[in-house]
Fold these 2 entries.
Entry 1:
Amino acid sequence: MTTVSIIGNGNMGQAIAAIATAGGHEVEIVGRDASQPVTGDIVVLAVPYPAVAGIVAERGAQLAGKTVVDITNPLDFQTFDSLVVAPDASAAHELAEALPASKVLKAFNTNFAATLHAKQLGGTPTTVLIAGDDADAKQQLADVVRAGGVQAVDAGALSRARELEAVGFLQLTLAVQEKLGWTGGLALVA
Amino acid sequence: MTTVSIIGNGNMGQAIAAIATAGGHEVEIVGRDASQPVTGDIVVLAVPYPAVAGIVAERGAQLAGKTVVDITNPLDFQTFDSLVVAPDASAAHELAEALPASKVLKAFNTNFAATLHAKQLGGTPTTVLIAGDDADAKQQLADVVRAGGVQAVDAGALSRARELEAVGFLQLTLAVQEKLGWTGGLALVA
């Protein structure tokens, strides 16, 4: 059994917690302040991008050796017209640079919370796209996702987080313009 | 009736021609050499990215005033690990710079040819995502696509071509790794 720690209790954190619980894994939800240590093998940073730097600063040592999952979409939420990370990089790349002793994965940023709960969108099974440079860590997270009844696909190296964040960005811009609903999005049809 | 000229007769060119024909529009398919002029209101460059520069050089003057549709995915097809355009730009952005008198759109690059023919993937209607800075040109192309029985969604300004090309890139890497088939891909669930 893999223990999954989730930092953040918003709609994404709750949806990811539900998947891990459904798969029989132990889930620990901790607040953003660092007073409660994280004990999980996998730690999901279920917080908005601007909150990640503070978590790194406060919990960097705690996260060493762990699989750390970045779910953020680093949009400029004032303009909804650009990302706030370097165009050739990604929030996940930044996180990996900041946590060199952790196994950083990008995942869940292309899924809206409702489609994680529903396990489908438009009749297509929900798929979590996972990017990362550590094959074992990716497999570990994919196992947790699949045990919870949701599909998981290895999207490649952590450098593919640039593309996953572009997908997340595009999807959010379409949703805020009401061209798709929060129960929809981009579904991966195999 | 809109006349649609398609430069290139590969599987994408044929699929786009079939949509336009199904919608009752006149379609003209011309080869990559410039001996045959293009007469359409919309000109689709249904060629691989490396062929675009030659078309611009030979047909730039012919394309003035027209709606020009870029469908390319500018991957490094040697490595399948990066794009060959600047990370903050796109092939469509390059084309717009090269053809300042044309109305350049990005479209079709997130659709595999089979899903344009089938008009669905995994039971979800196929959607063509269209980005561009000229609202009338986007509407004109969307009308042609919809008349042919395929959905069309305005994905925003031409700057969103960066994200559309990231989607196309990701989708191609998943297909070549056999994580999805050429009859599948990312389906837009409204």
Entry 2:
Amino acid sequence: MEKTTATKRIYSGKIINVRVDDVELQDGSMSKREVVEHPGAVAILAVTDNREAFFVRQYRKPIEKELLEIPAGKLDEGESPQSCAARELAEEVGMAADELRQISFHYSSPGFASEKMYVFLATGLKKVDVARPEGEFLEAFRLPLAEAVSMARNGDIEDSKTLVALLLAAGIFNL
Amino acid sequence: MEKTTATKRIYSGKIINVRVDDVELQDGSMSKREVVEHPGAVAILAVTDNREAFFVRQYRKPIEKELLEIPAGKLDEGESPQSCAARELAEEVGMAADELRQISFHYSSPGFASEKMYVFLATGLKKVDVARPEGEFLEAFRLPLAEAVSMARNGDIEDSKTLVALLLAAGIFNL
């Protein structure tokens, strides 16, 4: 346990808030903790009946490059992870799923951020027509799941949630 | 590409910096991007000759709970990922490795943070005597690698870098 003795609010933004806590450590000494507050997010590995998976490629400002990822997005206020997963799947790749099963819950960067990541496996896919939200630019496409799992094992996937999803899928689909 | 037209510095801290960029999107419209700058980090899956892996349990302020993780730490200025991995392995679990092989490079939260994560597999382990840095409180222990891989597959590992490391190790060690 690290008891908070004071909190300084640094920034309240659109997606993140930042604060610095004064904390009392196990030995009674004092330290500071920089904390990024995040609303949480979902990621969806959507697999078709013929074992293809959906991916998106989009520009990520923090790393100044395009990244290959599975569909994902942050939770709206009061939104359940399950509903968020269904919404993002429709918005980003135009699909609805008969089954949406949570296969992982994890923290992406627990050293400095509160972000929780819920990863879903979506199967029984059907096309739906949903408009992409304004200001979202991404390219959506499919890859054979087996090929994507090989990419994950060979170091060709550089996004943590996508790595976790594909490596778990390898076990689920015996790849 | 998202062209930065202005940058506002919000916070310069010990581990993170925060800025907000005004960016021009693909269609010429303007938006804002909140960016957490991070120095990058390493994580080490250290496996003994009899297939046990080292873990640490430590309190993580952003999520207000203890988390089971592999040894990890952030890069010091000018430090290579390889040197950082050797240093953290010694500091956190008191081991040196004959072989330290990078098995993943990924971004932990590319939507809002620049953090790069380098994951190493450490083998040929020998005990070393190194003092733990002040203010670091963690419990170190070993688990059979096969058991840890099962935990990762069953949802009992909630740290992203640890999940990636264990699921990649499953392929490497045929587990």
